[in-house]
Design a protein that fits this description.
Blueprint lengths: L6 H19 L11 H17 L7 H13 L6 H14 L11 H21 L5 H23 L3 H17 E4 L6 H16 L4 H12 L8 H23 L1 H9 L1 H16 L4 H6 L1 H53 L5 H21 L5 H16 L6 E4 L6 H28 L4 H25 L11 H27 L1 H35 L1
Parallel strand pairs: 1-2
């Protein structure tokens, strides 16, 4: 191993070497779980439709599918042995796992870890918690269990070691300016949460699971008696974990850590693309720089396709929601209350979302050459000098008293001005109340999705740009719109009629049909083989 590497990066490269060697040694570990290809095709088509109307990032789809399946098949009295095989087979049919690749022994392991959560819930359900709180805890446990099931079936070792090296590197350079109300452990938790959210794009479910493992270090090795003993501690940790996830400091750190995320994404791609030569590449700085520049160009060229895919998915998601509100609210209101169909508002509401999304897509630009030079500079500092540039995070003291009241009043005025101007313009265009509500709904949603897409496109941009006066004014007007859109996007799955119909009316009987169809296919094959 080259002596000029930083300790953190050197350990990271050695860990990667262990992962590659373990991958090579992986061979046949006994019989594998197999499902019918014909049944798998049906389940795969269903999942494609389901994921179209419920917009989520690609890397979260399997985890949320696992959670959804557990919520459907888990019922009182079931044990892990009743749930493990049906869960794994459904994931294989939907092609979240490869067919004939999961060892049969994973059924027993999955059953054991599900039993751990069943034991914890059974202890808590006998306590005197309110029914609403118990229901919340039940679904929280199911989501945590889904994360552990996925981790058991598809170990994310690369993800784990990248989080470790990024966290170690950041802590070497991070300096807090100002007084922080958190103790050292609290700061470390917020650093960890920010890295999870930014580096591996973890959602709330995933962060909850990582924090649970933080508070209970031996979580994977817990026996069922130990799980029973810790049940009340796990219940109490739910509120603490939620508080840590929602703490404003990790959102602030998320923005400040962006350059580190970009650097380690680039380095990870170099390692993955060169599994046999990556140690030699890191041993020579000039060669690593060439690879960094080459990888930057490749990733920049993929931004356009990534943005287009995100825009298409967002438009489909918004279009499905638009159909619901158009049929349920806008058309009936115009026809039965106003006794007329106002076509201009209907046309504007129909065309506005895709036109705005397309305009956002056209306006997105790839990172420039100076950005690549900035990434190269950070790579040299982190890989060879043992540190990056010093990262100072200024902590502003919490606003109290009159100043806090004044700022909240100004924030409220921002909302009034932003939405007031929009509503005034729509009234001048002869919009009805229903049409205004729908326009505002989709303006906020499209604005938020557009912002998220722009952030995805700008993931590798680490150069800071000075804000102009016009940008500040536009931000003043659009921040309320974006915040409302964020809230709607976060809660839209609860309001999405398509998701409700798929999850509660179609999915259960459809999955039963798929299993019967699979059994029929196997039966017919056996009868055919008997005749040969």
């Amino acid at each position: 191993m080259p002596s000029n590497l930083s300790n953190a990066v050197e350990n990271w490269l050695l860990n990667y070497q262990d992962i590659f060697e373990a991958t090579k040694k992986e061979g046949a570990r006994g019989p594998k779980i197999t499902v019918s290809d014909a049944a798998s095709r049906l389940a795969f088509i269903y999942e494609k439709i389901r994921n179209t109307v419920d917009y989520r990032e690609d890397h979260l789809l399997r985890r949320h599918a696992t959670s959804r399946i557990l919520k459907r098949i888990a019922s009182p009295g079931h044990k892990g042995s009743d749930l493990a095989r049906p869960l794994i087979e459904e994931l294989i049919r939907a092609r979240y796992l490869a067919n004939d690749s999961v060892p049969e022994q994973m059924v027993d392991r999955t059953a054991h870890l599900i039993n751990k959560y069943i034991v914890i819930y059974n202890v808590i359900v006998d306590s005197s918690y309110p029914p609403k709180e118990m229901k919340s805890f039940f679904y929280w446990l199911l989501e945590i269990a889904a994360c552990e099931v996925e981790e058991a079936l598809v170990p994310a070792e690369e993800e784990r070691i990248m989080v470790e090296v990024t966290e170690r590197t950041i802590k070497q350079n991070l300096v807090f300016d100002g007084r922080c109300q958190l103790d050292e452990e609290g700061k470390n938790i917020q650093i960890h949460v920010a890295i999870l959210k930014g580096l591996i794009k973890a959602d709330e479910m995933t962060v909850n699971y990582f924090l649970l493992k933080y508070y209970f270090p031996g979580w994977h090795e817990l026996t069922l008696p130990e799980a029973e003993h810790l049940a009340h501690d796990v219940k109490r940790s739910q509120a603490v974990i939620k508080e840590n996830y929602n703490h404003q400091l990790n959102e602030r750190l998320l923005r400040d850590f962006k350059k580190y995320f970009a650097v380690f994404w680039i380095l990870q791609d170099i390692i993955r693309d060169n599994p046999e030569q990556y140690l030699a590449i890191f041993a020579r700085p000039e060669r690593l720089i060439e690879k960094v520049e080459e990888t930057c160009r490749t990733k920049y060229s993929h931004i356009g396709a990534k943005v287009r895919r995100a825009i298409i998915r967002s438009v489909i998601y918004i279009f499905c929601t638009k159909i619901i509100f158009g049929i349920v609210l806008e058309l009936p209101f115009d026809y039965f209350i106003l006794k007329e169909l106002r076509w201009p508002p209907l046309i504007i509401n129909a065309l506005f979302p895709p036109v705005l999304m397309a305009a956002i897509g056209v306006s997105i630009r790839t990172p420039s050459k100076p950005n690549t030079e900035a990434i190269v500079s950070e790579v040299q500092n982190i890989v060879y000098h043992g540190n990056g540039s010093e990262l100072r995070v200024r902590l502003n003291p919490p606003k109290r008293g009159f100043l806090n009241i004044l700022l909240n009043l100004l924030y409220f005025i921002m909302y009034v001005v932003s939405f007031g101007l929009i509503i005034y313009g729509l009234l001048r265009l002869n919009f009805s109340v229903a049409s205004i509500i729908i326009f505002l709904l989709f303006l906020t949603m499209v604005s938020f999705f557009s912002l998220r897409i722009r952030r995805t496109a700008a993931e590798l941009i680490i150069l800071k740009h000075r804000e102009r006066f016009l940008t500040v004014i536009v931000s003043f007007l659009f921040v309320p719109v974006l915040r409302v859109g964020r809230w709607i996007a976060m809660h839209s799955s609860k309001l999405n009629v398509f998701i409700f119909i798929l999850d509660f009316i179609i999915e259960a009987p459809f999955k039963i049909f798929v299993r019967i169809f699979e059994d029929l296919v196997i039966f017919v094959k056996e009868k055919r083989d008997e005749m040969l």
